[in-house]
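Entry:
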Amino acid sequence: MADAPIWEDVVDHLVDALAGSEQLGAVQVIEGLPGDLKVVGDELVAVDDEITSETSMPVATAGAKPYDDIFEVLIRIRVRGRSTRADTRARLGELHAAIHELLAGDPTLGDLDGVLSAAIVRRRRMVTSTTDGFLGYGEVYLSVHSRITP
C-alpha cells in the first residue's frame, strides 16, 4: 500500500491513459485547467490537478495507523469547431463514452499502489452557442478510494 497520498500519481496515470486511448484519437489531453494558452485544437480533455480529499484517519495511539483517503478527480471535456449543435453534442457524447469505457474497465487505475477502487460518480454536459460557433463542455467526476499505510 502507498505510504503517502497518491493524488499526483492518479492524475499522472489518468493523463497517460487518456492520451494513449485509441478511442480518443488525436484529442489533446493535458493536466490542469484548460486555459487558452494550453489548447491546441478543437477538442480537449483536461485532468484537473486541484484535489480535495476526505480522510478517515484513526487516532494514532501507538504510532501512525493506515487510513483511507477518498478524493475526486475532475476530467473536463471541450469540443468546438462543429457546424451544428447536434454535431457538437454527438462528439461530446463520443468523448464521454470513450472516457467511461476506459475508466469502467480499470477500477484500480492500472493497479496503482494504494488504489482500492475508482468509479465515475457524476457526469455533466452542455452545448452552447458563441460568436465563434458552438461550444460543447463536459465533466466527468471520478471518485478514488485509496488506502495510505504510513
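The chain has a mean pLDDT of 90.
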